[in-house]
Each structure stands twice: as C-alpha cells, then as structure tokens.
Amino acid sequence: MHVILLLWCLFSLLLNPTMAQSATGISIGPARALDMMIQDYAYRAFILPRTGVPYDGTMPSNLTGIQISAMRLRTGSLRFRGIQSYKEFQIPKGIMEDSYVERLILVYQNLGNWSTKYYPLPGYTHLTPVLGLLAYDAANLSAMNLPELKIKATGNPILIHFGDTKPVPAGSSPKCVWINLNGWVNFSRPISGNTCSTVDQGHFSMVVESVSPAPGPASTSEGDGGASANPRPVIMGKSEGNKRKVWIIVGSVVGGIALLVLFASLILWAQKFNQRQKMQQMERAAEVGEALHLASIGNVKTPAAMVTRTRPVLETEYVT
Ligand SMILES: *[C@@H]1O[C@H](CO)[C@@H](O)[C@H](O)[C@H]1NC(C)=O
Ligand SMILES: *[C@@H]1O[C@H](CO)[C@@H](O)[C@H](O)[C@H]1NC(C)=O
Ligand SMILES: *[C@@H]1O[C@H](CO)[C@@H](O)[C@H](O)[C@H]1NC(C)=O
Ligand SMILES: *[C@@H]1O[C@H](CO)[C@@H](O)[C@H](O)[C@H]1NC(C)=O
C-alpha cells in the first residue's frame, strides 16, 4: 500500500503544473504583479465614469512616483474613431480585440523612477520612463486580477510621443523598446524624434546602449555607466524561457524515471530479502521440528499406541 502512495506522490510532483510555470516569467514576474496591482488601483479611480475621459488613479504610498490612469471606452468607438490623445499615446482607428466585449478600459502607466527597477535592460539605459498601455474588460469595475484583452492595431500603428528624454550620449542613437506581456523585448527605430510606434499593448520606452566600460582597470565611465558595470537580471526572451522550460521538463522526467527505477529495484530487493528470510525461518523451523520429533521419540522408550490394530475377526466368518 505505502509503495503505491509513494509512487503517487512522485507522479503528482512530476506532473504538478505550478512547478513548470515557476520556471518561466521569473524576471517579468514582479512587473506583472505590478500590472495587476495597477489595474486594481486604476479601476478604483472610476466613480460614475464617463466614456472617453481619462481618470487618474493613486498608487499606494510605497509606490509613489508611479502615475496611473484609466479610460473607459466602447469597443465600437475605439474601432471606428480611435483616441486622438491619451497621455503620451495616440491611438488610431482600427484597434481590434480578439474576444468581443462591449466596453473596455485602457489602463495607462508611467513607471517614473521605478522604470529601471521593474524593467531593467542590461546593456541599455532608459532615456524615458517606461510607459504602459494595457486593455481590460470594463464589465466589472470592482474586478481584480483581470487578464488583459488581446488588442491589435489593424490599421495605422499606435504612436507614443515621449516627452523630454534624458540627453543622448554623443555617438549613440536612441532606440524604441517594446516589452510585451511575456517579457519579450523588441527594439525598433523611432519613427521620428521622440516618437515610437506599436501595434500591440505592453510597456514602452526609449533607450540607448550603455557606454560599456572598456576592459582594463584604468577606465571608468561617468553617468549611467554604473548600470552596465553592474548587470541586473535579464528579462527573458520567450524562446529563451521556453528552452529553459523544456530543459526543466526533460530533466524532471529523466530524474523521475531514474527515481522510479531506483524505487522499483529497492522494492524488488526488499521482497527478495523478505522471501529469503522466510525461507530461512522455515528451514530453521523445520530443523528444530525434526530435532524435537527425534528427541520425543528418543524420550519415549515405549512405542506409541498403534494407529491401527489388527481388526477383530468375526467368528462367524469361519462358520461356513
Ligand atoms: C505596497 O503596499 C501594498 C499594500 O498597500 C502591498 O500589497 C505591495 O506588495 C507593496 N509593494 C511594494 C513594492 O512594496
Ligand atoms: C521614487 O520617488 C519617490 C518620491 O518621489 C520615492 O518615495 C520612491 O522611493 C522612489 N522610488 C525608487 C525606486 O527609488
Ligand atoms: C466583480 O468583481 C468582484 C471582485 O472580483 C466580485 O466580488 C463581484 O462578484 C463581481 N461582480 C460581478 C457582477 O461579476
Ligand atoms: C520587432 O520589431 C520589428 C521592427 O519594428 C518588427 O518588424 C517585428 O515584427 C517585431 N517583432 C515582433 C514579434 O513583433
């Protein structure tokens, strides 16, 4: 019985999906938890909301510096009219979502001085705060832990007009960066000046490659050079994350099989050991029994009563 229980434990450990999941999105995890929290706080800003009007929310005091806003829209108006300006975002007509909802809410984030904490990009320096634009269903304004809707710009792209950027180091050119909800990072060229474009939701910023300190003890770089000298955890690309996931799955399966084989051989060995012991016991018992038998026979000098005696013969049998 306990063997079956053990095997069951082993299998449930191997097949536990949460174990596999914890392997991916480790580095995007805190940022996604923040997204969830911002969704909650942004929704709280709504009191009798009018559509198409941005409502600024307030983050808890331990996250001062993050600005959030929420705008409720009919999906039809988003599709056919777009929004001329929502903070830094210019949203054209033609935004489509893959599941039909009547109204949606666009949550805006400006991570301010928290940008590099939640979106560290090793080898790059943020020139602007990280901005986020995420779409949610507007059906329940007190809902929490909402999943994002999938939206896409099917016509013109969404434009992001970043305001002032940090000064660009001489000789380097700024890049637009888009980080999608899985932590997938994509760089592109600005379409002009401080304007970037996107067809998808997610988080956006402008970056430059960090001035990497030249190898050698004498060199030091000023300003943001510290960022590259002290690399931070990388936001994993999707393929990288998947590869790791595959390896972890392969590893745990192989490990599991090895464990199973080990257990099986242990069980077999235990059974054999048991059998051998039983056999030995029986042998010993038999030996002891024989000895007793002999002894008892030896003690009893007179032969024991006969089991069968000669049957009495009827006299009548002779009379014929
Ligand atoms: C900030 O405080 C909230 C509760 O008010 C908590 O849930 C959250 O984890 C805190 N976040 C940080 C980054 O400290
Ligand atoms: C950002 O600035 C606020 C004050 O404006 C401060 O309370 C907060 O700790 C800062 N955040 C980080 C990550 O330094
Ligand atoms: C809205 O969401 C809240 C929090 O998740 C939940 O308690 C409530 O039942 C929901 N209301 C509706 C109408 O689904
Ligand atoms: C990444 O950006 C480039 C340039 O903007 C674009 O062509 C490509 O489709 C993007 N990749 C994804 C997965 O969207």
UniProtKB/TrEMBL annotation:
Q: Which InterPro entries does the record match to this protein?
A: DUF1191
The source's superkingdom equals Eukaryota
Say if the entry is tagged with keyword Transmembrane helix. yes
Q: Which residues form the signal peptide?
A: 1-20
UniProt keywords, alphabetically: Membrane, Signal, Transmembrane, Transmembrane helix
Provide one Gene Ontology cellular component: membrane
Residues spanning the membrane: 246-270
- Region Disordered, annotated ranges: 212-232
A UniProt-annotated Pfam family = DUF1191
Q: Which PANTHER family match?
A: EXPRESSED PROTEIN (PTHR33512:SF14), PROTEIN, PUTATIVE (DUF1191)-RELATED (PTHR33512)
Q: What is this protein called?
A: Uncharacterized protein
Organism in which the protein naturally occurs? Trapa incisa
